[in-house]
């Protein structure tokens, strides 16, 4: 079977069958390498499991230099008068399976543009996940709307769709699901809730290029989808973003708005600048970089998925290690990050920071991920601002403050461990290093504290 045509379900079945057979035969232990028990933790001066470096990111393709240098020498660096941004927009829309794409200076501005053209602003409420990069909060706040959080499902790391309806009020205008870490949110339930309550859906797919829900690309499942092309992202150009959609009138407004309000398509000319707009245009040389990086996106996505599924099969039986769960309807994830939960009770109650330090010492880069950002003062500063006091009554803001409690998200923020996407652009033997390092730490858990 061609590995590029292996489905997620086929790969899981094959990986699990291999693991079960190997464990049963005694070829490998139920988890990790039991010989690690005799090994001193690298944290305490022992030999690390891995000393080989991991891949750097981003990866530059020298074949793209000719097109980038040609643009620089031409002096046509802005999309006005150029054609490269338009070429990328066309190809990215085709890749995502939608009619239209508008490129912006970054993912944050793609989200801001989406909120604006869907007329979401002063006094409105937007349902959003609390487990996300801070930009998702900021775009709602900067639109003078309230980010209303629905608690997280710790198993999937995504917004819990069963917690959304209880947060809807007469002021709710939109649901902003985040396919965080490149793992798809439950779009069937989210879209059904939105339809029931006449809400728009804006997908924050800024970490989810090529991820799929029932075979359709994330970002193409709501009214609008937004992406980031920042330096760490799978499709990078330093800074950059895009919004995609199928409604020509909405996308015409988006193009006009991001181009200083100039007429475009159905946005008719009533003056030189017929609508309120801003300049959020992408540059020509950024688009040239993206066209080059796009050539590796499919192969890299496939490799990340295969290695992620293999890694899950290797670590899922280690006590205290709980890999993320994908919904059954996910046909592919993007894996901007590979997440799992760390249960300290199984590690002699060693705090997560100790586990992370031990894993780093064994040669496995890792992170604790997001914290409960709604507790760090950002939200309170917004609520105390002049704009919010003008837009919302004191009673409404006080009620909002009382509802800032998300126990499942708080727990996830205490347990999450992330591995970078570049670790997945390697081989199965490299995944074995990760699993062996985690196993070694577990087997020496009494020495962690």
Q: Can you put this structure into words, describing what you see?
A:
- The structure is a single chain.
- The chain is α/β, with parallel strands linked by helices and 449 residues long.
- The protein folds into 2 domains: 3-58 and 295-369 and 412-447, Alpha-Beta Complex (Aspartate Aminotransferase, domain 1), CATH 3.90.1150; 62-292, Aspartate Aminotransferase, domain 2 (3-Layer(aba) Sandwich), CATH 3.40.640.10.
- The chain is 38% helix and 13% strand.
- The chain has 14 helices and 15 strands.
- It has helices at 8-25, 65-74, 84-96, 107-117, 134-142, 187-197, 248-258, 284-315, 352-361, 378-383, 386-391, 394-402, 407-415, 428-443, and strands spanning 100-104, 125-128, 146-149, 152-153, 158-159, 172-176, 200-204, 212-213, 216-217, 224-228, 241-245, 321-323, 330-332, 337-342, 416-420.
- It has a 7-stranded mixed sheet, sandwiched between helices. Strands 9-8-13 form a 3-stranded antiparallel sheet, with no helix packed on it. Strands 12-14-15 form a 3-stranded antiparallel sheet.
- Strand 4 (152-153) and strand 5 (158-159) form a beta hairpin.
- Helix 3 (84-96) runs parallel beside helix 8 and helix 4 runs parallel beside helix 5 (134-142).
- The longest helix has 32 residues, at 284-315.
